[in-house]
Amino acid sequence: MKNRLFFAFAAISLLFSLMSFSETGTYQLAVLQYKGGGDWYSNPSSIPNLVKYCNERLGMNINEEVPFVDVGSRELFNYPLVHMTGHGNVVLSASDIDNLRAYLQSGGFLHISDNYGMDEFVRPQMRRVFPDLDFIELPFEHAIYHQQFDFNSGLPKIHEHDNKAPQGLGLIYEGRLVCFYDYECDLGDAWEDWEVHKDPEALRQKAFEFGANMIQFVMMGEAK
User: What is the domain count for the chain?
Assistant: First the structure.
């Protein structure tokens, strides 16, 4: 009973966060902290840089402070979008799973960016979150590819990794995209300060454009 009440209040908190965006345009993103030894803290400049890009280029009004939030914390419900990355192991407790599921079911959105080596660990954990859902590759006609910018051929390829084509994968719960997973792409690396990876500027620009699309999609849905 106590847990049900907490999740109900948390869902209301998330709803007010989304309403705040529609009224004032002010909201905040966060980076997801998890256990297992995977470096959830990698790419520390990526989300702050994405926020700055959206504010400066698209006139968004996102809080430029990007906190870390534990996957099992009630603070998770304060953020309409959380970013998850890393190179290795991901371990979620039963309470972490319940919290993340409630967050996503109540309107939250999770972006996962495989920084290489994370895939084999994160997929089983997300299967625990939604046992009846599988990641599907989103068609290039999906609205997330066509917000401020058009991506008619899908995601840009940032780093080679295993020499596979980049994929934009999604979990769809009751008709709503609740999780976007960029695999064999590494958007987070492109969002980092240029000095970290020295990726071509044109490639970084495409990555920022897609990141802006994703935020617009989360906050405004199908609208273009």
Answer: 1
In CATH, what number is assigned to the domain containing residue 104? 3.40.50.12140
Q: Give the global pTM.
A: 0.89
Contacts of 162 (CB under 8 A, 6+ apart): 184
Q: How far apart are the first and last CA of the chain?
A: 41
Long-range contact list for 55-59, CB < 8 A, 24+ apart? 57/208, 57/212, 58/148, 58/212, 58/216
Which residue range(s) make up the domain with 54? 2-220
Place of tokens 């997973």: 181
CA distance 17 to 4: 20
Summarize pLDDT for 124-169 with one digit per residue, the tens.
Answer: 999 999 999 999 999 999 999 999 999 999 999 998 888 899 999 9
**pLDDT for 36-59, tens place per residue?**
988 999 999 999 999 999 999 999
